Amino acid sequence: MKHWIAAAALLALASSGEAQTVAASKGGRVDKSSFGTTKDGQAVDLYTLTNANGVVAKITTYGALLTELHVPDRTGAAADVVLGFKTLQGYEGDHPYFGATIGRVANRIAKGRFRLNGQEYTLATNNGPNHLHGGLKGFDKRVWKAQPVSVGGVPAVRFTYTSADMEEGYPGTLTATVTYTLTHANELRLEYTATTDKPTIVNLTNHSYFNLAGDGQGTILDHELTIMADRYTPVDDTLIPTGEIASVRGSVMDFNRSTPIGARIREVPGPAPGGYDHNYVLSHGGGVLAMSATVREPKSGRVMEVLTTEPGVQLYTGNFLDGTLTGKAGVAYQKNGGFCLETQHFPDSINRPNFPPVVLQPGRTYKSTTVYRFSAR
Ligand code: BGC
């Protein structure tokens, strides 16, 4: 009887959207609540990770997408430092991938075409003449399964999505996971894996837009950015790499020394309307988890360090935000209202033999880790 009452109480909690603790240890906690139902009737959950310092990250099973991330400034005051919406309806509407997990292949594939093992594949051209971020219904628009897990004794959540053979035109059944861990060192750790039953291509990333002053707190032009990269991949006027790997030295592309994002932003060459939208070739070369970029917001003192095992990172400065989307704080997102550092293999790699390869073979496991570490000074 007691059990029945407990089960009924849990069910009542789940259906009312109230949070239920699903894992806890060493001062960390994972809570689960309902985030509503998709237009086509799928139930969506929201997982809240809290670490021993009170840092909070919220991730929804819709798009395995980061909706909120509350981190302290130099006085200890927390702010939500990612852009996004209050409700699932916001994320189901048109938006530029706020917080989402991107797959099967992040960034662009020229003309939506590639060859693999002698076979030609055609993908949706959903970005001018090119394929972008997995297509019309990429991993960002799928409902993932979620499971609380423990990573190094810290409560975490693993999201899993199985993408069918030829979904969005990609060959092979691909099972992808992304595990979010919020460590007690104030790191949000994203660990990806993928396996396939046929040769395919994979490049997973997270598309969070950060504003370290807080969501809706103006532009990121004063944020001081360092990217540990001597080279980048120049693009044509449809943002496809030309194939050249060029030096950043002495140009507006160089962030080896901490520089405000806005300092030279109006001089950035290329088609992106007033801003950076470029892949940097990280100097560490990828393969091991290594320091890749640092961003500091001068007023709050919040600092975000990015470590990754990926060979590249896309710096995107929210150039296409134009005031038409209103975020969680009720503020319209203006141009440069957030920045992304999308850790990745280079854009259009499958068509560029001189770029690190993105092919995944059956029997192999794709692995990628990115850490966003927060502090204040
Ligand atoms: C791309 C941008 C695009 C943005 C949102 C970034 O990864 O490089 O060109 O506008 O995503 O879709």
Commentary on this structure:
With 377 residues, the protein is mainly β. The chain has a single domain (2-376), classed as Beta-galactosidase, Chain A, domain 5 (Distorted Sandwich). Helix content is 5%, strand content 40%. The chain contains 2 helices and 28 strands. The protein has helices at residues 2-16, 88-92; strands at residues 20-25, 28-37, 43-50, 56-60, 65-72, 78-80, 101-102, 108-109, 113-116, 119-122, 131-132, 145-151, 154-163, 174-182, 187-196, 200-201, 205-206, 224-227, 229-233, 246-247, 259-260, 277-282, 290-296, 302-308, 312-316, 340-344, 359-360, 366-376. The strands form 7 sheets. Strands 12-13-14-15-28-24-23-18-21 form a 9-stranded antiparallel β-sheet, with no helix packed on it. It has a 6-stranded antiparallel β-sheet with strand order 1-2-3-4-5-6. A hairpin with a 2-residue loop joins strand 1 (20-25) and strand 2 (28-37). The radius of gyration is 20 Å and the shape is globular. The site of beta-D-glucopyranose has 9 residues, from strand 25.
Q: Key terms for this structure?
A:
mainly beta; Beta-galactosidase, Chain A, domain 5; disordered N terminus; binds beta-D-glucopyranose
**Overall spatial form:** globular
Helix share of residues? Answer: under 10%
Query: Helix segment count?
Result: 2
Low-confidence stretches: 1-16
Give the percentage of residues in beta strands. 35-45%
What is the tally of beta strands? 28
H/E series: HEEEEEEHEEEEEEEEEEEEEEEEEEEEEE
Largest sheet: 9 strands, antiparallel
Proper CATH architecture:
Distorted Sandwich
CATH topology group: Beta-galactosidase, Chain A, domain 5
Mean pLDDT: 95
Q: Report, as a whole number of angstroms, the end-to-end distance.
A: 55 Å
Q: Give the tally of structural domains.
A: 1
Q: Which CATH C-level class is it?
A: Mainly Beta
